[in-house]
Amino acid sequence: MSGDQVIKVGSRKSQLALIQTNHVISLLKQKHPNKQFEIVTMSTLGDKILDIPLPKIGEKSLFTKELETALANGTIDFVVHSLKDLPTTLPDGMVIGAVLTREDPRDALVLKKDLTAYTLSTLPPNSIIGTSSLRRTAQLLKKYPHLKVENIRGNLNTRLRKLDELDNYKAIILAASGLIRMGWEDRITEILEEKELMYAVGQGALAVECREDNLDIIKLLDPLYDLETALSVTAERSFLKTLGGGCSAPVAVFSSIKPKKGNKVHLSLHGAVWSLDGKDEILDNCNTELVVQKYIRCNSCPFKKESVCVDIENCSGGADGEPSQKKPKIDKTIPAEVLKDDPHEKCPIQIPVGAEFMGKCPYLEGKQNDTKQLDKLDIKQCPFINKQNATSERNTNEVDVGNKDNNNSFCGLVSHRNAGIESMELAKKLGEDLAKKLIKDGALEIMSKAQAIVHGETVAQNIVQN
């Protein structure tokens, strides 16, 4: 890579994706002011088709395949992803060259504006909470049985508008990191603590994917590679990978890392799986101690400039989040009356609660003002129905991958220079050990039942429609 060469950066076209990509580029320009960057946007399959379920722990390549193809053929040099969208096993020749300092990984409660005095526990009985996540659904059903949980479709912008302008939902649950990066922190009613609602593997972290053999790009990304985040997400991704990352079931984690004396850190990982209704739960935790070659310091640490942290035992650990972006306005180009009568909400295909939806349905695109068109749709052509067998096969194949990495990476991540191979291996082993504890207690049986229900309901609906 010559000094004059333009570095091409791949990104999805969504507003949040572009904010994240521009953030990474701005950080790189601070380190390399003479480098030129060009954003190459493209739509993934997940952006084009609405009615494909994508549980947060399930098939992820629908959001990344086109970008990774462009990366493999050299059209682009690296891609910025939300780490939770990346499979735990990457395509041959691909690595995660860096993960940035993690934004808040927790979930956020967003209440209707006239209900902000409430919490999840104090909301009136039968209040409807909108979410499109198996993980959140199962935990809400278990911990807040007085509430109802229903799917809410659309992107972040659309979900907020549906909460504000319709009477369907009293609250929605979203990733805090997405709201923060969009500059919409003021919409957060409450940050849900990890013990109240455990989060998705890798949530809140940005990952930069590149070719394994592109050492120039890996070197370019090195200043952005955060040590604490690398160790934490390696353990989390290893946990999910050992369980079988393609299973359609509620899986969640939370991790913490705390500096100790003598360049040692204490890494803790909690993980859990649930049945779809939240009634069955298997939860456990594991801990390990790692040696690093650099002190982990909070960005606001008062001892940051000292060679030794004076009060290390009282340090809370954890790094500050990424710089906030300019606050964009909520897009209101879709008329309120169309939002209220959204045909996607009237789709005759009953998608299981907890499924994830992205993009636009090609069979409803351009017909938002005529919901009668639904009666004329050929259900056999529904992409949700047509993709089920293929998705099921992909999920089964992913489980067979086991713990093999395609290269010398750690669940896709290159080794961090201040962690070393041994500490990265220990972080990976921590996730494996925790997963094995849950498997011993019956986690795979719960996950298999959940997967069978998700795919079984879809097949049943197909039979009924025919």
Textual characterization of the structure:
By secondary structure, this protein is α/β, with parallel strands linked by helices. It folds into three domains: 119 residues, D-Maltodextrin-Binding Protein, domain 2 (3-Layer(aba) Sandwich); 92 residues, D-Maltodextrin-Binding Protein, domain 2; 139 residues, Porphobilinogen deaminase, C-terminal domain (Double Stranded RNA Binding Domain, 2-Layer Sandwich). It has twelve helices and 13 strands. The strands form three sheets. A five-stranded mixed sheet has the order 2-1-3-10-4, sandwiched between helices. A five-stranded mixed sheet has the order 7-6-8-5-9, sandwiched between helices. Strands 11-12-13 form a three-stranded antiparallel sheet. It is globular, with a radius of gyration of 22 Å. The N and C termini lie far apart (57 Å). InterPro entries: HemC, Porphobilin_deaminase_cofac_BS, Porphobilin_deaminase_N, Porphobilinogen_deaminase_C, Porphobilinogen_deaminase_C_sf. Its EC number is 2.5.1.61.
